[in-house]
Known about the structure:
Elements (H helix, E strand, L loop, with lengths): L1 H6 L10 H14 L8 E4 L7 H4 L8 E4 L3 H10 L3 H7 L2 E3 L13 E6 L8 H14 E11 L32 H9 L5 E4 L10 E5 L1
Parallel strand pairs: 1-2, 1-4, 2-3, 4-5
Antiparallel strand pairs: 5-7, 6-7
The structure holds S-adenosylmethionine.
Amino acid sequence: MDRLLANGTFIGGPPDLFDIAGDCQLGILKHFGMSSESKVLDIGCGCLRGGRKVIPELNSGCYFGIEPNKEMLEAGLEVCIDSSVVSEKMPSFDNNADFNFGIFESKFDFVMARSIWTHASKNNIAKMLDEFIEWREPGAKFVTSYHRARIPILGEYHGTSWVGKSHESDEGGVVRHSLRRIKGLCAERGLTVREFVDERFDFGTQIWLIVE
Ligand SMILES: C[S@@+](CC[C@H](N)C(=O)[O-])C[C@H]1O[C@@H](n2cnc3c(N)ncnc32)[C@H](O)[C@@H]1O
C-alpha cells in the first residue's frame, strides 16, 4: 500500500478504510450468494480495492473488471494482488468508460459498483442499469452504493457528467441521488432497488443498494 501512496496513485478512498473496504465488498457479495462459480463484474474496479479480496474466492475466469484509469489498474495489479493469484484466476479487464458490459461477452451473476454511483450522473446510472438487464444471468444482483440526497431533495445531482477522480480528472468530488429518483430509474426498467444497511458490510458514509 505504501508504494501506491508514495506514487500518488489514487487508491479508491481513504487509506485507513482500504482493507475494510475490500472485506466489506467481498462480504456483501457472499451474503447475497456469491460462490466460487459466480461470474462477478466490478465496475470501476480501480486498483482492485475490492478485487484483491474477491478474485481469490472465484474460479478461474470468473472475475471481470472495468477501469478506464489504466495507470490505477496497472498499479493495483502490480502492488495489491499477488501475481500468482492473477495467473491462477485469470481475471479479465477492460478500460472502456462507456459502462459497456458486453465487451466481455459473458453474463454476470453479480455486478458490483462500489463508490461509483457516488460520482455518476443519472445518465451513467441509467446506462449501467440497461447493461445489467442485457448482461445478467437469471437471479443476478447489482450491488452498488450511493450518497442519499438529503430531504427535502437537497443536493440532488442533476448534472450529466461524472464528478470526481477518473481517467480524465484528478479532482475529487461526490454526488448525491435521492432514493426516489433511483427507484424511478429502476422501475422504468422493471427492476427493484432497496437500501441494505448491515454493520457487517458498512464502512465510510455510503449506503449499499441492491438492484434486482
Ligand atoms: C472512488 S473510485 C472506486 C474504485 C473501486 N470501486 C473501489 O471500491 O475501490 C471510482 C472509480 O471509478 C472509475 N471511473 C471513472 N469513470 C468511470 C467510468 N466512466 N466507467 C467506469 N469507471 C469509472 C475511477 O477511475 C475510479 O477508479
